[in-house]
Structure formats: C-alpha cells, structure tokens
Amino acid sequence: MGMFFTICIFLILFLIAWIDGKTKRIPDRLLAVLLAAEICAVPFFPEIEMAERGMGILCVSVPLLMLNLIRPGAFGGGDIKLSAVSGMFLGWRRMADAFLLALFMAGGYAFRLLAGKKKGRRDCFAFGPFLCMGIMTAFFMIFMGKSPGYLYKHVSCHM
C-alpha cells in the first residue's frame, strides 16, 4: 500500500512540475491532493518522527516567505506552499536536502539561460519543477535507506 501512495505522490509532483513549468503557477487543488496523499503515506514511513515532520513544514517555507517579504516576487506562493506540504512528509532534514538540490539545479539552469542570453538577470523562471525534482530525489533516498545528507557526503568526498 505504501508503494501505491508513493506512486501517487510522484505523479502529483510530476504534474505540479509540468504545470508550473508551463504557467508559473502551482494550483492549490494539486497541493491539497498532494497533502492528502502524503498524509495517507505517513504510516508507511515511520522512520521520520512527527516532530521532525512538524519542523519540516517550517524549515524551508518560512525562510522563503521571509525572503519574499523582503524581496517581493523572489519566490512564488506556490513554491512556499509546496515546500511546506512536502516538508510535512519528508521532515526537516530531507526537506533541507531537497531544497539545496533544487537550488543547485535551478542555479545551473539559470546559468545556462544567462550564458545563452535567453534571459536577463531580472527575468524569472519557475522554481517549482526544480523543487519537485529535489523533493523526488529526497523521497527516493528514503527508499534507498540513505540518511539525510547522503548525497552531500558522497559528492564532497569526490571533489
């Protein structure tokens, strides 16, 4: 049954990434469906404690919200809500991993756009697809039985 919810969560994240990539909007209805699927999946992943899940709601969404208050438009409201919803499932450590992965991927994409002169420094692009990829990677690491920070420990050793 846990696999069913996992597949549902991945499909919803793919849909969110695709829609946000096309429209720069993350529909609240999809976030509600994602939240419901994640709540149903919680019993199948007991290794993440409830306190960690509670902190996961806040660890990325609050800094994004604060940054958005300081610099309006830095992140969309959908990105903030997606990080809160996914943080509830992943817990704060894995959500921090997911966000850092998303930042690296989005940074590489932004560099490519700037280098190719397709976008300027003031132009924006959807962050949701990168956040979804980071979330899916962190989620996958749970299945692999890897601890939070696993990717960083192994990548930094080879640099």
TrEMBL record:
Transmembrane segments: 29-45, 57-75, 95-115, 124-144
Domain Prepilin type IV endopeptidase peptidase: 8-110
Lineage: superkingdom: Bacteria
Keywords: Membrane, Transmembrane, Transmembrane helix
Gene3D superfamilies, per database record: 1.20.120.1220
Keyword Cell division in record: no
Matches recorded under InterPro entries: Prepilin_IV_endopep_pep (IPR000045), Prepilin_peptidase/N-MTase (IPR050882)
Pfam families membership: Peptidase_A24
Family statement drawn from the similarity comment of this UniProt entry: Belongs to the peptidase A24 family.
Name listed for the protein in its UniProt record: A24 family peptidase
